[in-house]
Every structure is written in structure tokens, then in C-alpha cells.
Fold this protein.
Amino acid sequence: MLLEEFKVDPNATGPEYGNALTAAAYDANMEILQLLLAAGADVNSPNGWALQIAAAEGHYGVVEELLKHNADVNACTTNENFPAGTALQGACEASRTEIV
């Protein structure tokens, strides 16, 4: 509804998760993740850290989906809500061997 009827910007940001794609990645909600990507959500937005949080949370399918959409594996965030840096650093810090 929000994306289709009200044309909400899928890249809009907020203080908690950065953007909607990051929130969907954190929750491993593939249906919402795919809706956001189809609506033009930027996997490499400087205001989000979807790949990093998916890797840190161990959401393998989400990581795969983001990589299919050309997420930058070397992107590094300095956001205070996710201080781990890169996806690899987040996965290592959280002992997510399957992601590493």
C-alpha cells in the first residue's frame, strides 16, 4: 500500500535502522526485502547497512539476495547503531561461519 498507492520513497531514512531495506534485512523478511528492491531501494545506500546487518544476524538468504542486487561487499558503515563496519566484520564478530 505505502509503496504502490502513496509512492513512498523506499530509500527514505530514519534514526533506528537507517532505511527500510536495513530493517527488512535485520528481520530477514524476504517478502518485504524483495518488494523494496523492486520499488528501487538502493542496496548501497549510504544511509543503510542492509548487507552488514544481514551478515551479522546470520541471514544467509538475505545476504544472497542483496548480493544478487550488487550490494557492495566492501561497504563500511560507521553508524553508531551498527559499529561493526563491513559485512565480513559483522559476520566475524557474530561468529556467523556460514556467512564468512
The mean pLDDT is 91. Strands lie at 13-14, 18-19. Helices lie at 20-27, 30-38, 50-57, 60-68, 87-93. The first helix runs from residue 20 to 27.
